[in-house]
Specification:
The protein is an alpha+beta fold and 83 residues long. The protein has one domain (14-48, 58-81). Helix content is 24%, strand content 24%. It is built from 1 helix and 3 strands, in the order E-E-E-H. The chain has one helix at 62-81; strands at 14-21, 24-30, 36-40. It has a 3-stranded antiparallel β-sheet with strand order 1-2-3, with no helix packed on it. Strand 2 (24-30) and strand 3 (36-40) form a beta hairpin. 2% of the residues are buried.
Length: 83
């Protein structure tokens, strides 16, 4: 389990089978108490290195998203004024 916000992060679990839910690959796992659970495969390292070194941090800050939205707004206004 590699998803940093999951209580089982860092735990090695036994994969029982694969399934697809809403087009997303999930693993049916044997949990530490012996019960079965289903988690998205991309929450694990089953495909090798996740390549995500952000440790669950957002890719963009809230302020960066606000600035980007403002830029899109200005570009859209400029596009319409040039017609």
């Amino acid at each position: 389990m590699t998803y940093p916000h999951h209580p089982l992060a860092g735990t090695k679990l036994h994969v029982l089978r694969w399934t697809r839910l809403d087009g997303v690959i999930h693993l049916v796992l044997e949990l530490v108490d012996g019960s079965h659970g289903c988690l998205p495969a991309n929450w694990t390292d089953v495909f090798g290195d996740t390549g995500d070194d952000r440790n669950g941090a957002p890719a963009f800050t809230t302020e960066a998203l606000r600035q980007f939205a403002r830029l899109l707004e200005l570009l859209g206004a400029r596009r319409w004024s040039n017609r």
